[in-house]
Design goal:
single chain, 238 residues, alpha/beta, 2-enoyl-CoA Hydratase, Chain A, domain 1, 51% helix, 17% strand, globular
Length: 238
């Protein structure tokens, strides 16, 4: 499900499950973590196969978490939230600069992982949403902090609380992405042409603010996600 290809300066990481819009299972999240941490290249391109970037958590996994909650334990739901948070942190703290090349739909947890990337660029076909609120959940992979930090409190609340879909132009206007391009790879190669040591130092300096606050927020996210899985267990299993 997670496919990697390498050249001298760039690792391409592809979420390769197009038949499920690149929805992520725990195994896929763990493979993604490995792909962004065990890397020699100084730029990573994160992309999705087919017509979507990433639909977020696999709904079959969510249904299993709901079954566990109905049986009396929300521990697996909290653990799944923490796994997604860990992968987002791995993207954020990777030695490589991570560029999300968003072509097609990005939803829920997929958007949260994109928010952890250093640079997000979109094609004209990209669309963005946090739809969990429409069926009783929310993304719990660090997005409540990163979305606000990226687009500001007003836009973040609008996106999260409405579940509405943004097109590429709206995402650019809000600052959710930095460019609209026909081929995200062109941005990847532009960054890869820069000095490796400078990229590493700049990423480190620009990425350390607010970590303590984010850790506290992620703990709250995991507990809230587990509570919602419990509250909506019957609906989520159907």
């Amino acid at each position: 499900m997670i496919r990697t290809t390498d050249d001298e300066t760039v690792r391409t990481v592809t979420i390769d499950r197009p038949e499920r819009r690149n929805a992520l299972t725990p195994a896929a999240l763990e493979a993604l973590e490995t792909a962004v941490t065990e890397v020699d290249a100084h730029v990573i391109e994160l992309r999705g196969a087919g017509s979507a970037f990433c639909a977020g958590a696999d709904l079959d996994v969510v249904a299993d978490l709901a079954a566990d909650a109905a049986a009396g334990t929300t521990d697996p739901a909290a653990a799944f939230a923490r796994l997604g948070q860990r992968v987002a942190r791995a993207i954020e703290t990777s030695d490589a600069v991570v560029v999300a090349g968003i072509d097609g739909a990005v939803r829920g947890g997929g958007l949260e992982l994109a928010l952890a990337c250093d640079v997000r660029v979109a094609t004209p076909a990209a669309s963005f949403a946090e739809p969990g609120v429409t069926f009783g959940l929310f993304g719990a992979w660090g997005g409540t902090h990163r979305l606000t930090a990226t687009v500001g409190r007003s836009h973040a609340r609008d996106i999260a609380l409405s579940g509405r879909v943004l097109d590429a132009e709206q995402a650019l206007e809000m600052g959710l992405v930095s460019r609209i391009v026909d081929t995200p790879r062109s941005v990847v190669e532009e960054i890869a042409d820069c000095d490796r040591e400078t990229l590493i130092r700049l990423k480190s300096l620009m990425g350390t603010a607010g970590i303590a606050d984010r850790t506290t927020q992620e703990d709250r996210e995991a507990h809230a996600f587990a509570a919602l899985v419990d509250a909506h267990a019957n609906t989520l299993r159907s």
